[in-house]
Amino acid sequence: MKRILITGSAGFIGFHLAMHLKKRGDFCIGLDNFNNYYDPKLKRTRADLLKKEGIEIIEEDIQDREQIKTLLETHKITHVVHLAAQAGVLRSLTHPDDYVSSNLQGFVSVIEACRFFPKIKFIYASSSSVYGLNEKTPFNVEDKTDRPTNLYGATKKANELIAHAYHHIYGLAVTGLRYFTVYGPWGRPDMAFYRFTKQIQEGKPIQVFNNGQMKRDFTYIDDIVLGTIAAIDLGADYEIFNLGNNRPIELLYLIQLLEEALGKKAIKEMLPMQPGEVTETFADIEKSQKHLKYQPSISIEEGIPLFLNWFKQYNS
Predict the structure, then answer these.
(1) For the purposes of burial, counting CB atoms within 10 Å of the CB of 24, is it exposed (0-12), middle (13-18) or buried (19 or more)?
(2) Which of 67, 78, 183, 221 has the lowest tally of Cβ within 10 angstroms?
(3) What domain range is 292 assigned to?
């Protein structure tokens, strides 16, 4: 049985990961500061469901390094899955300090705590945003990632560099997971799936940037969780993996699918490209398939009804 600490456990991915790990028999404990980047009520509801499954959530900031060290020692933690971070590309344009505080200082706080426990495996969330201005697709983990388009992506690239330094100096086992546009039940309200669904239902305009000429490698949450668990089980000395669907979807096709599922046409406000965005994300998952036996199985056509079923229940 693995003993796993999940930071950001009341977040979207952290919630699902904790549920899956608990169900298979691992010990899980969570850490979350329940910040107000989006409505904390959603995080509290996720946390309540985790508590019902016997998963304790400690309400604390990841910058409290001594608290993290205490948790690692007290609960004899074998694996840390570091998911806590300030998310969102747009917010990084207006609130850069939040990203420095959480994604840089917070990341160092957690990995620095881990180095005092050399047997711990450290698995952390990176992002497809590290690929930035890369034009070659699909994005391969061996591609250069030195041209980020926004501060969020830059902090995630910095996380990878910091993790490599800790592995090199202290021998810490580190695995980075580059997540590609995750969606599904209990998803974040600031993400396109949630926003578009809510706005279409309410008859409000949805903002379609770059006149819809964008593609995203939307990846269903269960596929992401299975890939993350495979990385936990692999316990690699040092690796970086892409976790995506390997099937980019045009933004206008996503909107069409939502319209069909909701039985209502979207009011589209066509806009130019946003600062900090990219036109396409596309994961090369060959390495993940080889080492993690990762095989995303849920298509966008299958995933949308699963998301909408939850959305309607949660917002009823």
Answers:
(1) exposed
(2) 67
(3) 3-187+219-246+282-297
The answer to whether position 202 is within a domain reads no
Q: At 69, phi and psi to the nearest 5?
A: -60, -40
Instruction: Judge whether 38 counts as a catalytic residue.
Output: no
Phi, psi of 305 (to 5 degrees): -60, -35
Cα 64 to Cα 67: distance, rounded to the nearest angstrom: 5
Phi, psi of 300 (to 5 degrees): -60, -35
Peptide bond into 275 cis (omega under 30): no
Please give the pLDDT value at position 159. Answer: 98
Q: Which of 99, 152, 166, 294 is catalytic?
A: 152
The b/e string for 255-290 (b: 16+ C-beta within 10 A; e otherwise) is bebbeeebeeebebeeeeeeebebebbbbbbebbbe
pLDDT in tens, 24-75: 999 999 999 999 999 999 999 999 999 999 999 999 999 999 999 999 999 9
Tokens of 257: 């699918």
Q: Is residue 78 part of a domain?
A: yes
Answer yes or no: is 73 within a domain: yes
β-strands 249-250, 215-216: how paired? antiparallel
- Tell if the pTM clears 0.90, that is, is over it: yes
Measured CA to CA, the distance from residue 189 to residue 206 in angstroms comes to: 14
Residue type, 267: I
In a domain, 195, yes or no: no
